[in-house]
Every structure is written in C-alpha cells, then in structure tokens.
Structure to design on (367 residues):
C-alpha cells in the first residue's frame, strides 16, 4: 500500500472511531440548549455562596448557678441585669428571674446552658415599656454541677457577620491542607529509600538488579491503585475521617514520589560518581558526596508539587469518607444545599490557586 493509501486508511479509521465514540457516548449537543433551564438555579446558587449572613443584634445576660453547692460568683454588671431568686438550685426547682434595663418592647428567650455549653430553650418573653421582664422557670435535667440561665433579647438592628457555613468550611479547609501535608510527609519518608533502591544507575550486580526490579514493581503496583480506592479501603479499616485520607494520600504519594525521585537519581551527572569512586569511597560515601548534592533541589521541588497535588486530591477522597472539605461538600450536595456547596467549592478554588502560586514560587527558588 502506498503512502497516500496509508494516510487515507488512517483518516477513515479515525473517522470511524470518532463516529462510534459519538454514538457510544450518546452526545446530543441540542440538549445543551433545550435543557439549559434545568441548570440555571444551580448556577445561580453556585455564584451566591453563603459567605456573610445578616443576624439580629441581641442583648445577652447570663446568670451562673450551681446544682447542690455554693453558687459561683456573678460577673460584673454592665448594662442590662438579670437577678435570680436562687443561684444554688436543684433539678426541677422553680426559679424566678427578673430582668431590667433591656430594650423596651422586644421579644426574648430564656436559655439553659449546661456545663458542656449546650443550650436548651426554657421560655419566651417580651420586655415591657421599661425594658423589664419577670418569669418563673424550672431547672431542667442537666449534665454537670453547674449551669447558666441566659436571657437573650432580640434588638431591631441587624449586623453582618461570617456565616456559619463559612466558618465550618474554613475549619474543614484547614483540615484538608494539613491532611495533604501529613500524607505528603508520609510519602516522603518511605519514597526516599525506595527511590535509591529503584534507581537503575545505582544498581550493580545481580543483587542490585534484583532489588531494583522489586522496588520498581512495588512502586508501579501502588501507583496503579487510585487514591479513591485506597481511601475506601482505609475508611473501612480505620473508620471514616481524616486519618483514612492521610493513609490513602500517603500510600499513593510513596509510589508517585518514589518514581519521580528515582528518575531524578537516574538523570544525575555520572562524573561526580566516577570521581568519588576513584578515591576508593564506599557505596554509602558515593551516595552521600556524589548523588545527594545533585538531587536535593529536585527532591524539594517534587515534594512541594506533590503537596499541591494532594491538596486537590484530598477534596476528592473526602467523598468516600477520607475527611476534609470533600466530606463536607458531599453532604451539602446530597442535601441539595447548593449555596453551602458553593461556599466549599470557592474555598477549594482559592486555596488550590494559592497553593499552586506558592509552590511555583518555591520551586523557582530551589530548582
């Protein structure tokens, strides 16, 4: 067959493959237009993350009480005041509370806060024209030997503050970054020795070649297993949470970094190795003085880059119980809370972009 015939056959084969792929994947470009209305609410919510929330201002006064013991000291009185008929109480006892100097004519509630800080509402009230109220409540069944009766009066003014979703997302995002950091550190600890064993230019003799082959096989096997599968295994093994994510990222980082490290070792200049060997140095001395100085910048660059990758990957393994922001994002998606999910998505985007920028700057300095 002539060259022209081969090119024609290749083109026909490519067209056939493309046509079959179009049919198998059921591509219908018309649905992008006819079903656009279905995605509009989702896109709208994704562009409106819950970053800030408007909440009413409140006046809050807590009265500490003791259950069956000496009452704790009262805090200094500033502004509104609440007095209790007794501050040494028992479960089920009725206590009268009198409040003064609150905002007049405003709704309020009385809350019991136990020793753990968990609140439970006891009653509702409305202040009179002088900003006072009086009510009687019973001490609920509670934990610990101390608690607080808290009067909360809602004011007409409102203030902006970071939303509860943003605070929760920020907390999980920090967990995600350190989850990736610990997984990367775990990978480095095991990848460094494996990389020296898996470097072809350092393998000498039958034993060295056997160790080289075994090391490369181990690295290839673990690198072929997806982190999602590893996260699922470890979530079953050690339970759902960030520890499972650290183990999954760590095992996958061992394989990936081991390969990158070993290839960096294989690419070094053989001149210094030959020079050190000519002095009669031992194998460890050759590695110490001829190999390590050449590979340290590449090792640092690969490690930082792997941490960057693990930050992105940790958001995905959270979907299978690996902890971090991914686990929270999965819950929001399952509950169709798209604005909350948008907060997590934007947080992931910003942190990954920042990590990418910082890692690029560090790599520029060390390479």
């Amino acid at each position: 067959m002539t060259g022209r015939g081969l090119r024609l056959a290749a083109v026909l084969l490519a067209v056939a493959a493309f046509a079959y792929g179009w049919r198998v994947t059921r591509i219908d470009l018309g649905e992008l237009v006819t079903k656009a209305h279905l995605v509009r609410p989702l896109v709208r919510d994704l562009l409106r993350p819950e970053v800030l929330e408007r909440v009413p201002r409140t006046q809050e006064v807590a009265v500490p009480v003791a259950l069956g013991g000496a009452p704790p000291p009262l805090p200094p009185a500033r502004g509104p005041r609440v007095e209790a008929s007794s501050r040494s109480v028992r479960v089920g006892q009725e206590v009268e509370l009198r409040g003064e100097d609150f905002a007049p004519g405003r709704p309020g509630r009385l809350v019991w806060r136990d020793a753990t800080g968990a609140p439970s509402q006891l009653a509702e009230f409305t202040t009179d024209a002088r900003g006072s109220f009086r009510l009687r409540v019973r001490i609920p069944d509670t934990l610990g030997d101390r608690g607080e009766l808290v009067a909360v009066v809602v004011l007409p003014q409102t203030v902006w503050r970071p939303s509860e979703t943003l605070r929760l997302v920020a907390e999980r995002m920090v967990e995600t970054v350190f989850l990736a950091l610990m997984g990367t550190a775990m990978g480095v600890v095991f990848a460094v020795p494996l990389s020296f064993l898996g470097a072809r230019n350092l393998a000498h003799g039958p034993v060295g070649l056997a160790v080289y082959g075994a090391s490369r096989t181990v690295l290839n096997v673990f690198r072929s297993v997806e982190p999602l599968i590893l996260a699922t295994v470890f979530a079953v093994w050690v339970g759902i949470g960030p520890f499972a994510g650290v183990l999954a990222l760590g095992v996958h980082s061992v394989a990936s970094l081991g390969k990158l490290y070993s290839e960096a070792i294989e690419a070094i200049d053989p001149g210094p190795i030959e020079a050190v060997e000519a002095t009669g140095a031992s194998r460890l001395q050759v590695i110490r003085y001829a190999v390590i100085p050449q590979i340290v910048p590449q090792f640092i660059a690969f490690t930082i880059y792997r941490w960057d990758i693990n930050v992105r990957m940790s958001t995905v393994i959270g979907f299978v119980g690996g902890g971090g922001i991914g686990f929270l994002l999965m819950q929001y998606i399952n509950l169709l809370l798209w604005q909350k999910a948008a907060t997590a998505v934007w947080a992931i985007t910003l942190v990954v972009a920042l990590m990418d920028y910082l890692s690029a700057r560090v790599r520029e300095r060390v390479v």
Summary: The chain has three domains: 3-46, 53-162, 165-366. The first strand starts at residue 52 and ends at 67. Residues 3-46 form one domain. The two ends are 50 Å apart (CA to CA).
